[in-house]
Amino acid sequence: MQAIKPRKTSISGLLRTKFSERTVVRDLAIRLILALSTGFVCVALILFVMQTRNDSKELRSRLTAGTTQLGNLLALPMWTFNETEIKSLVGTQGMAEDVTGIIIIDDAKRPVTNFLKNGQSKDIQVSRDIVYKGRKIGSVRVFASTTPLFNRAFKNLAMVAVMSIVAIVIVVLLILYLLNMYLDEPLHRLVSGIQLIASGQYRDKLPSVPQKELSRITDEVNFMAEKIALRELQIKENMEAATVLKTELGIAETIQRSMTSTKGFNTARRVAQYYQPMNNLSGDWMTVFECDKGNTIYALVGDVTGHGIPQGLVTMAAFGAIQTLRPLIQQNSRSFTPAVILNILRSALVTLLHECQLAMTVSVIKIDTNSRELSMSSAGHPLPLVIRPDSGGVKVQVLSAKPQSPLGFEFLTRSSAPLAYKDSHHKLEADDTILLFSDGLTEARDRSNKQFQKKFVSILKSLDRRYPPSILLDRVMQNLRDHTEGKQPDDDICLLVIDTRKDDGHEAVA
User: What one-character DSSP code corresponds to residue 37?
Assistant: First the structure.
């Protein structure tokens, strides 16, 4: 991670940057100004009220004392009615700044003198009786104004406001500078470091900062960078492994799909097939081939328990074993009955099935188109069906066989040594068609969870026997798709349709 240099910003540039858009510093500065201003206004109002109240109280006290003194001084001049001395005393007292007027009244309530200052309020009034030798001879009223007091208080308030504004500006500028130094610069380095991490530079760490809060964030970002670097390495390794695995699975899938092809046949005439794996590697497999110039047909369908790579490997091993046997079978078809093929297949796969803890069902049939003989042996697999004309219609029958355990079953159940597989024999009629399939076909379910098995048999009964195998298969699969409503199959599906009628003009390719 590259070193991040601190930014140098002037006060004017700082103000333009921080107040041009909403930032933490701007919000903090605005709230600080509001808080200080509010505090100043509250304190100033309290001081103003207290000052004016104290000044008013002091003024009233001075006015009371002065009025009392003036009443005492006016006692003799009022008794002698010395007008000159009275005016002199009133004039002297009226010269005071706070006094705005003096009125003297004799005992008959007639005004003796009336001294008032024009244009000034008289909101404070103090009255005292003039007494001479125990006798009231008049009264004096002295007026005063609080306006000067308020003027002085307002001047003081204005001076404090100016000083407070200057202090607030200084404090805000200082705080902005400190925030830029201790908050904005570390955050800038932190954001720049995160941007470098986002660009893929995880090696270098963010420099530590002395502030505890920012140090925690820096440590978490550095830890995040380490985790991202480790996760990126793991993802890269996983992607490389996934690429290799995908390539290998593609090869395995290609090889396995080749197992379902029918070689050595005029497939449109004799055999039709359908193969749909549940996923990339299927556990189902099938193969069919001819011997004796097309007079003998062998067909095999297998199903390994479960789904996945082990099942796909077992499938390929089984098909490879059959492909190895195929030349021998074609050279001497009389020696290879379905039971013999199953016994050989079990011997070839015994170790693999045991190591993988798997079992495999297999159905093998052998058809002699000349003698119309069908021999079969089933290792736990669904039994084949025969479609046979019957009184203008079609009859569907199951080719019965002796129940026999799947390949590898004895290892899963830890039972005794398996018995040798045996054949069952059936006589075919001239126009019989044989169907071999896996249980993925009959157990396919619709939206209401009903299986396809009953509908499968019903469909076969409704088909025209004159249809070739390809048409029969297409009709079955179309009904299967209608049954499942296009839903992804829950199991692998295999279906073989074999026309057993002898074709004198047929010549085997194999």
Answer: H
Of the residues 147, 176, 205, the one at which a domain ends: 147
Q: Is residue 175 part of a domain?
A: no
For residue 333, give the DSSP letter: G
Q: What is the pLDDT of residue 248?
A: 57
pLDDT at position 415 is 67
Whether residue 152 is contained in a domain is answered as no
Alpha helices in 207-307 (DSSP H): 212-258
Residue that is last in its domain, among 147, 163, 178: 147
The DSSP code for 184 is I
| 73 CB-near residues (< 8 Å, 6+ apart) | 89
Counting as low any pLDDT under 50, the low residues of the chain are: 1-4, 261-268, 505-510
Could you tell me the CATH number of the domain that includes residue 273?
Answer: 3.60.40.10
How confident is the model over 116-157, as pLDDT tens digits?
877 667 778 888 888 888 888 889 888 888 787 788 888 888
Total domains, the chain: 2
Residue 130 belongs to what domain range? 70-147
Say what the pLDDT of residue 292 is: 87
Q: Which two tokens stand for residue 392?
A: 């203008």
Q: Distance between CA atoms of 186 and 18, rounded to whole angstroms?
A: 15
CA neighbor of 145 nearest in space, from 115, 170, 127, 119: 119
pLDDT digits (tens, 9 = 90+) for 442-460: 999 888 889 999 899 888 8
What residue type is assigned to position 77 of the chain? P
> Is 242 part of any domain?
no
How many Å apart are CA 66 and CA 149, to the nearest integer? 18
> Of 88, 131, 140, 89, whose CA–CA distance to 111 is shortest?
140
Using DSSP, state whether 274 is helix, strand or coil: strand
Q: How does DSSP classify residue 126?
A: E
**Token pair 């001049």 is at which residue?**
77
pLDDT value for 103: 87
Which residue type occupies 116? L
